[in-house]
Write a structure and sequence with these properties.
Length: about 375
């Protein structure tokens, strides 16, 4: 059977790296884009050159590496450093320079704002090239699990439970200590005393977290990832995570805005919608979102910013303990805006006193009015 002959590893070749990169390769676009932008205007920090020691790398080199990493789904600075050594595309893009992972990481850390400005500039470029329309934008988010475990995430109630448990156990050990003193059992006395000391240390730790939580004005505090929060991921599943928001243009499904938050989608619509509007530099557009974004306050903020929103309404859940039939669900009641009344399925009119009531929940709060009719008693 005939086989394809392999190329000899020790065969000498004459050529250059330029010949190994196709003309339509995306790295050529990265090269052209980065070389034609002014990094200083975007806010990138220029490191001062030193007379002694090894020379530094050009900031454009790191920006090319990051563009390549984003394009190919490589987020780790260590992995990017490895790719600079073994990846022929990055070798061409970096002209065979090989910065270490620490330098790559520092560049992103020191230029977070400038990288955001670069993204806005790129969106502007896409618009000028008519690759985005800026008319219809879809908004959604995804939860990214943090390194912080659920055990290391605390709310005010959770801290209170821990402190109450410690106080109860301390009292229990003090009682046991008194009993052991009477029996003159030195081994048990020493063991109980150590447990009490450990509980005191834990109590001081939780009280310190309580003070930090109160000072922050937040509802949660995370020990490992300070910015991470316990979020509802799916159904009743809660994870300590971040919420990555993205706005995507309808024309070619290109991302025009993105940021990371530590709260659920219900309070995220207006921020990402306004960011997309600013990046696109348009007067108005239509934003599409699923029912997770349905929040009256957020929709109102979008309308105030001249953004048309189409948000799916959440399914109404009937919580009446007597079991309301489908004919009497809220959707079956007709509202009269002029008279501020509702008409029930039986044709009776429900009126209101005009008083506003406030409902506060853990995730948000809202105001509502009550509508009644004495006919309900019949």
């Amino acid at each position: 059977m005939q086989l394809v002959s392999p190329h000899h590893r020790h065969q000498l070749e004459f050529g250059c790296m330029e010949d190994k990169i196709a003309q339509d390769n995306a790295v050529r676009f990265i090269e052209a884009f980065v070389e034609h932008i002014d990094l200083e205007k975007l806010g990138f920090q220029a490191r001062a050159t030193k007379q002694e020691g090894r020379p530094g790398f050009d900031a454009k080199l790191f920006l090319k590496i990051y563009f390549y990493g984003y394009l190919n789904g490589i987020r780790s600075s260590r992995r990017l450093a490895k790719e600079c050594i073994r990846n022929i595309e990055l070798q061409w893009l970096c002209v065979q320079l090989q910065p270490n992972y620490h330098s790559i990481c520092d560049f992103r850390k020191d230029n977070a704002k400038a990288l955001s400005n670069t993204f806005k500039l790129f969106v502007s470029f896409l618009k000028n090239e008519q690759l985005v329309s800026g008319e219809t934008i879809a908004i959604d988010g995804t939860k990214v699990r943090a390194h912080n475990s659920k055990k290391q995430n605390y709310s005010a109630k959770k801290l209170e439970r821990h402190i109450a448990y410690i106080e109860a156990k301390t009292n229990e050990y003090l009682t046991a200590l008194a009993e052991n003193d009477l029996q003159e059992d030195e081994v048990k006395v020493s063991d109980v005393a150590q447990k009490i000391e450990r509980l005191k240390t834990n109590k001081i730790y939780y009280e310190h977290l309580q003070e930090k939580l109160a000072a922050s004005g937040d509802t949660q505090i995370s020990v490992t990832d300070a910015d991470a929060r316990a979020l509802l991921v799916q159904g009743q599943v809660v994870e300590v995570a971040y919420n990555v928001q993205a706005a995507v243009d309808a024309k070619h499904n290109l991302v025009v805005a993105t940021h990371t938050i530590n709260k659920n989608d219900r309070k995220a619509l207006s921020a990402i919608a306004k960011e997309a509007k600013a990046n696109l530099a348009v007067e108005t557009y239509t934003a599409l979102a699923d029912k997770g974004y349905h929040n009256g306050g957020q929709i109102q903020q979008c309308q105030d910013a001249n953004i048309t929103t189409i948000v799916a309404a959440p399914t109404l859940v009937n919580s009446n303990e007597y079991g309301t039939t489908a004919a009497y669900m809220v959707t079956q009641f007709r509202y009269n805006e002029t008279a501020d009344t509702y008409t029930c399925p039986q044709g009776e009119t429900l009126t209101t006193t005009g008083s506003w009531h406030k409902k506060t929940r853990e995730r948000d709060s809202y105001q509502f009015k009550k509508y009644r009719t004495p006919k309900c008693k019949e």
